[in-house]
Please model this.
Amino acid sequence: MTILGIDPGFAIVGFGIVETGRGGQRLIQCGAITTQAGLPLPVRLRQIADDMGTLIGQFSPDAMAVEELFFNSNVTTGIAVAQARGVILVAAERAGVPVFEYTPSQIKQAVVGYGKAEKRQVMDMTRRLLQLKQVPKPDDAADAVAVALCHARSSHSKLSLYDSAQPGSGRWAARRR
Model:
């Protein structure tokens, strides 16, 4: 299974493509989509949408894992990130790629084993799990790889028998096999 992990943003969107199978997980590629500061938000959103379409077309992921938003104190930035996140979700939907969403605590729990782990612990464990010489750069890419790993590790649990992403269900429904 090929998983596209996304750390959403409007200045920088981190991405990580992880392949998972019986032999474990391996990093295929990671990086960041960057938009130029000072450009109007609609221009930046279009660039994110175009680049997401290119990524999805190039790697044909089986699933997309996206980090849910965590609002700190800057609501204005949070709104722009939410808009970028919406564009990212639409790109996946247009391509027919199922989307799975994870909170920061779920990502930390899946990667480190502790839902309140520090960022450096998540990055180091990501490096170890994928047997990398160094943590992926930039940080947004490392975060996206952790999101992909979270899905890889979570999708093998008994919870994968259920599909909460079924449109309009509003509850867990049995996945058809």
Observations:
- Residues 75-95 form the longest helix (21 residues).
- The chain has one domain: 2-174.
- The first strand starts at residue 2 and ends at 7.
- Strands lie at 2-7, 12-21, 24-34, 63-67, 99-102, 162-163, 173-174.
